Amino acid sequence: MGPKRVHKVLRKEPKEFGNVLLNSSRETAHMVDRYDRLKKWREILNEDIGNAVDTFLVDKEHWNGPEYHVITDTGLTMVYNSRTLKLISILISRPQQLKRNYEALGLKIPSIIHKLIKKFISRLNQGYDLNNW
Fold first, then answer.
1. pTM, entire model
2. Exposure on the CB side of residue 37, measured as CA atoms within 13 A
3. Which residues of 82-111 are buried (b: 16+ CB within 10 A; e: fewer)?
């Protein structure tokens, strides 16, 4: 097993800030290269990105700096660069990732997050491992 990945949750941001990020159209080249991933998710999930539930500033010790992780009500985690505010990646929110963000700040996990965790498990049971394309 490789070295443990760093995921330090620095703070929680207002929900409105997350929605501002979701409504921005700025993307990194990394994200543009993965357009097919987003298109496939929309086909399989029959959903759009949704609205922000919570937004966390996360330091993963990446050379580009910390990231904003916007958790949406459709179960996606939208990842943005904290300096440029450009979209970096879109992930299906995994249960442990969701829990880790709240627990790191000593926050109670909201009921909508518990519902998203159940949704994730249901998607896996249907054979959709959407983060590994």
1. 0.78
2. 17
3. eeeebbbbbbbbbbebbeebbebeeeeeee
3-class secondary-structure state, position 53: strand
Q: Which of 133, 45, 43, 54 is nearest to 89 (CA)?
A: 133
DSSP state, residue 26:
-
Q: Which residue has the tokens 């298109």?
A: 39
* b/e code 9-48 from CB counts within 10 Å (16+ = b): beebbeeebbbebbeeeebbeebeebeebeeebeeebeee
- Say how many C-beta atoms besides its own lie within 10 A of residue 59's C-beta: 14
Task: Tell me the torsion sign for CA atoms 91, 93, 97, 98.
Answer: positive
Using alpha carbons only, how large is the chain's radius of gyration in Å?
14
5-56 pLDDT, tens per residue?
788 999 999 888 898 888 876 666 666 566 676 666 666 666 677 899 999 9
